[in-house]
Specification:
15% strand, alpha/beta, 4-stranded parallel beta sheet, 344 residues, 42% helix, Rossmann fold, 434 Repressor (Amino-terminal Domain)
């Protein structure tokens, strides 16, 4: 026996060339959608045989004591510490958590968000994947009044709650530290430009150079797909073998910075005498590498706890997604041997 496939809002979206979030809002007569668009989408839905799953909707509208966590990779020290902060806070209030990894891939993130939605979570905390530039897959949570909190890697489109650090100031301070050590040609290992945290760290780097009248050399700025150890080693090798190598490096994470240290040592370049290096996150690897890596300490556990508190506080409020609130935490420089030429 052949069963007819149930028509979903994603099928209607494909047919009408509207986003799934627009289709969802139109079918629910949301005032943000024009009457003309609502009529058009409803007509197509009727023609395709769409039937709202009221049972599923009722289940989703029931309160749940589970928080969904949608992150990139759990094996990163920052992320695992972030999750610990979320889980500890949630558990104290009688909540459980479901953890889902996107591996920095957009399609996986979309599929995982759908799975969490169908699991009837009471709130979602997400740190976006590197590839993510479209955020429609979070609209279904917003439409259903499910608390949405973004942490660390956040979008700039939603009126939702965000928990971040002051990445701009951190990037500025890291670069200023290298300048104070006497560095004149400072390279920057950056993440993808559309990811706000990396954009802000880079902007802090650029503004610090300008303030101290150090020319910005585009050849010293390298954008990475994942800021991996391998990428750091390869980029550092190329920079250090050039005719005008850098004498300082600010990396947007610790992993790529350690890769740079490994390449420098292999090339016989003394650290910090010939190359000062500072990273970001204060991962365990920062204190293990030789010489130990200077870095920006990231309050990951506190960020996780605060994200969970935002979900818990607003889980029973209808206004959770109608306003924008940003909690911005401070960072601090941890100076170690990789950048310390001049002791205070």
């Amino acid at each position: 026996m052949n069963f007819k496939k149930e028509v979903t809002i994603y099928d209607i979206a494909k047919e009408t060339n509207y986003s799934p979030s627009t289709v969802s809002r139109a079918l629910n007569n949301n005032s943000s959608i024009s009457e003309k668009t609502i009529k058009k989408i409803k007509a197509v839905a009727k023609q395709m045989g769409y039937s709202p799953n009221t049972m599923a909707a009722n289940l989703r509208n029931s309160k749940s004591n589970t928080i969904g966590i949608l992150i990139s990779r759990i094996n990163r020290p920052f992320v695992s510490t972030l999750i610990s902060g979320i889980e500890e806070t949630a558990r104290k209030s009688g909540y459980n958590v479901i953890i889902s990894q996107s591996y920095d891939e957009y399609d996986i993130e979309v599929n995982n968000s759908e799975a969490l939605y169908n699991a009837r979570i009471g709130g979602i905390i997400s740190s976006l994947g590197m590839e993510t530039q479209n955020f429609d897959h979070f609209q279904k949570f917003i439409d259903q009044g499910i608390p949405v909190v973004f942490v660390d890697r956040v979008p700039n489109l939603f009126n939702v709650y965000k928990v971040v650090v002051d990445n701009y100031t951190a990037g500025y301070n890291a670069t200023k530290h290298l300048i104070e050590q006497g560095c004149k040609r400072i390279a920057h290992f950056a993440g993808l430009e559309h990811v706000i945290v990396y954009h802000d760290r880079k902007q802090g780097y650029l503004d610090a150079l300008k303030e101290y009248n150090i020319p910005v050399d585009p050849d010293l700025i390298i954008h990475f797909k994942s800021l991996s150890l391998k990428e750091g080693k390869k980029a550092a090798k190329k920079l250090l073998k050039s005719s005008t190598p850098p004498d300082g490096l600010f990396s947007a994470n610790d992993t790529a910075a350690v890769g740079a240290i490994m390449s420098a040592k292999k090339l016989g370049i003394a650290i910090p005498e010939e190359l000062c290096v500072i990273g970001f996150n204060d991962d365990p690897i920062a204190s293990i590498v030789d010489p130990p890596l200077s870095t920006i300490k990231h309050p990951a556990r506190k960020m996780g706890a605060l994200s969970a508190l935002r979900v818990l506080k607003h889980s029973n409020e209808d206004t959770i997604n109608s306003v924008s609130e940003i909690s911005m935490l401070n960072t601090k420089i941890v100076v170690r041997a990789s950048s310390q030429r001049h002791k205070k």
